[in-house]
Structure formats: structure tokens, C-alpha cells
Design brief:
homodimer; about 250 residues; alpha/beta; Rossmann fold; four-stranded parallel beta sheet; 11 helices; 4 strands
């Protein structure tokens, strides 16, 4: 069945509004990476709640200024407030403290460093959410930007971008996110950028070794992709399950 | 049925060992607050994996030296490595960065500040887990210290102490955790301290407005506690459900 971007957009907006109404909530805050997922979620939250109730946050951390410009394209288009919280000094302060434990080479710290950034971003967005909730006298939720393809293969940081209070696009494939982005007019430059974590210097698809298109096909029909590709996707999926369900001892 | 601390301890150790064996894992790392939950989990992980495969981390953050001493009591008794990662400067660096957004009074930042600490601790423990995994050439998991009573009423920080890779005591009430602590000889001073988050200056039970004993009773039988107490517990429970299941739009 063809994906109906207009209808889904309306349903998502209704979902957000209902949840806010039922729980007596006020606003939304989200990290704006300058990529399409945060662009689309920012657009949807603004359409649902009004620009005056949405706050976007750019959180550069030793990163290129480009992404900040793209974030501004999004906030200018939708009209919500954009604030900048530079995490470079916090990150460096953390690394500095590490020296008290020992000296470690770059390779040893590669995975640690890559995942520290989204975790600091999560801590920052939640910090600001509670702060603006106090300032404006109503609860601000952290809007999540994970899409169905990323979530299926576990392409996110546990305790980082995974953590959110509402997930508007978690059931949409990358192509569906783009279709909605086109419908709600997320700026072209943002919508058609190759998705990248901005951390590792590689695109998402290079890192994963599979395309989002193939992930979407596989989710629909395991035999819809070549066997080797399917095996790769299945392995990524199985290896990521612990990110959703913590193994727990039961009496 | 009486809780059999010896039998449950053996079953938990078996559960941990099986999970490590099945997934070809190496070690465990955990934050040691100096309270009974981290004391008991540290003891269980050590008994399951051997002291050489367990690392405890103290993460003071503008906090009293007492807790660090209690952490040392635990690591001395079980013989695992204890490292200290002081988060005071990282926390202050974060607060310093906030000045670029504005000046906010203490009251506005109260909730933000209280929850920032466990989120920084989570980021730190995960940083070190990946680092030691690289150093020792095998995966270190972050062991969670949440117990059943805390989890039931949502007494933890979303994206903070909630985040873990294995949960050995998540199905045990506070009394059962203490019974296991007595059996595995967690130092008395640690085991019988009034549980406190070390953040707010109040004990857990003062903050919650209900006792852990009553929470345990309520979980067994909703009518096992006075109605007013039950209503309070029920409300806490319902208000915390979003911490486990993020509201997600489904097509």
C-alpha cells in the first residue's frame, strides 16, 4: 500500500496533541542535529503544539559549523526557538578528568569517545527540558528522533539518543520520514543530506554496511533482499536487542 | 513463601554466568554509591565472574567523602578494583556553559541539577565499560543496581541509573536485597544504611512519602496497605510508566 504522507502527518499530529492533552503537558524540546530526522520531528512537534511551545537545541562538540547552519534553516522555517549549548568544553573536561585514571591511546578510547557525545547530548536536553518546564510552568517532553530503520538495527547510542519521552517517527522507515519531510516542507538541504552521526566521519550506511532501503525491505519481507544482506541485517538486529530489553534475573 | 537467600543467591550467580557464557562476555563495571544495592550487586557480580573481572567506580560530584569510604569497604571485602572518577569539574563545566544561555535561579534548576548527576554517572560508567572492553579484549557490561521496589515506583533517573546491560536484583524487593546482602556478607555499615540518593539530602523514603516495606506489601497485595498509602504508591507507579514505555506513534 502506498504511503500517504498527508494522512500520516495528520495522524501523527493528532497523536501528539492527544498525548499532550491527556497528560496535561506543555512543550517539547529536542536536539537538532541538522539532519532529516530531527528536521521532520521538529516540524511535526511545531505543527502539533505551536512554534511557541517547541525548543530546538544545537549541541556542537568539536564539530563542524555546517550542522549548526542547517539547524538554523529548520528553526527559521518553522519559527521555533533555537538555542546553542556547546559541549566541547564539557567533553574536554571529562577527558581531562580521565587523566587521573591513566593515559590511554586513541584506539582504546575510540568507542568510548564516539558514544560519550550522544550521552552528553541526552543529559543536556533533559537538563534543559526540566529547566524550561520550571520556567514556563508546564512539562516539556524530550522528543525522540529515531526512525524505524535505525531502531531495527540498533543504530543509536544506548543511554544517548535512544532516551526520549515521545517518539513520533519510530514506526516510519527512512523513506517514509523523507516523504513526510517533503510534505511538511523540511528545507531540501536538510532532507536530502546523507545521514551521518556526525561523530565517526562516515555516513550511517557506510558504518552499518547496509542501506536503509534494504533494511526497510527486509523488515517487510526477510527474503526481499539478497541473502548476504539479510544475514547482515538480522545480525545487527539480534545484537541490538539488549538495548531494548535488559537481561533481568527473575525469581 | 519465605525468601531463601542462599538459594536465590545461587540462582542469580548461575543466571549471570549463563548470560556471560552464552554471549561470550568478559567483565562487569558498576557505579558504587556506597549503598546496599550497589554493594549487593558488586558482591554478586564478583562471585559470578571473579574479582579480577569486576570494576567498581566511585563518582563523587560535590559529594561527601563518606560514600567513597563505604565504597572502599565493599571493594576491600570482595577484592575487586575500585577506581575514582570525580565528576565535580565536569558538572561545574556544564553549569558554566549554561551561562551562555542565561542566568537562572536555584529553584528553576533544582530538578535539572538533581538529575544531571546520575546522567553524568551513566555516561561515565559506559565510557569506562567501552574503554576496559578495549583494554582487556572482551566486553564489559554495565551492571544495574535498581531493585524491584524502586523500579515499581519509578524512583530512578530516566537515562541515568536506569540504563544498564544486566539487572541482577531488579526482581528483588528491598528486604530481599538485604537478605541476600546478609548472606553474601556485604559489610554491615553499607547494608543497613538508610537508602538515600545522595543528591537531595533526604532519604529515599522521605522523598517518596512511602516506605519500601509498604511498596513491597502493595506489590504482593494492593489491599495489604492502608488505602491512602496504596493510592500514593499506585500514583507513583502510574506516573512512572513512561520511563519504561515511550509513547510511540504507530501507523
Amino acid at each position: 500500500m502506498k504511503f500517504d504522507a498527508k494522512k500520516e502527518t495528520e495522524k501523527i499530529i493528532e497523536f501528539i496533541r492527544n498525548y499532550y492533552k491527556e497528560n496535561n503537558l506543555k512543550g517539547a524540546i529536542l536536539g537538532i542535529s541538522g539532519g532529516k530526522d530531527s528536521g521532520v520531528v521538529a516540524g511535526l512537534m511545531t505543527m502539533a503544539l505551536g512554534a511557541e511551545n517547541v525548543i530546538g537545541v544545537t549541541m556542537p562538540c568539536h564539530s563542524k559549523a555546517d550542522d549548526k547552519c542547517d539547524a538554523k534553516l529548520i528553526s527559521d522555517y518553522y519559527g521555533f526557538k533555537l538555542i546553542n549549548f556547546d559541549l566541547t568544553n564539557v567533553f574536554d573536561g571529562f577527558k581531562n578528568e580521565l587523566k587521573n585514571i591513566g593515559t590511554f591511546d586513541l584506539d582504546t578510547l575510540k568507542n568510548s569517545d564516539i558514544n560519550l557525545k550522544p550521552r552528553l547530548r541526552m543529559a543536556t536536553v533533559y537538563y534543559l527540558a526540566a529547566m524550561y518546564s520550571a520556567i514556563y510552568g508546564g512539562t516539556y517532553l524530550v522528543a525522540g528522533t529515531g526512525n524505524k530503520c535505525e531502531l531495527f538495527v540498533g543504530y543509536f547510542t544506548k543511554g544517548g539518543d535512544q532516551v526520549c519521552d515521545i517518539a513520533p517517527i519510530a514506526d516510519l522507515t527512512v523513506e517514509e520520514v523523507i516523504a513526510i519531510g517533503e510534505y511538511i516542507k523540511v528545507p531540501d538541504k536538510v532532507l536530502h543530506k546523507a545521514p551521518s552521526d556526525g561523530l565517526s566521519g562516515m555516513s550511517d550506511e557506510e558504518k552499518l554496511g547496509v542501506t536503509y532501503k534494504d533494511i526497510a525491505k527486509y523488515m517487510e519481507d526477510e527474503n526481499g533482499v539478497p541473502k548476504e544482506t539479510g544475514d547482515k541485517i538480522k545480525k545487527l538486529h539480534l545484537n541490538s536487542l539488549h538495548k531494548f530489553n535488559v537481561p533481568t534475573y527473575r525469581k
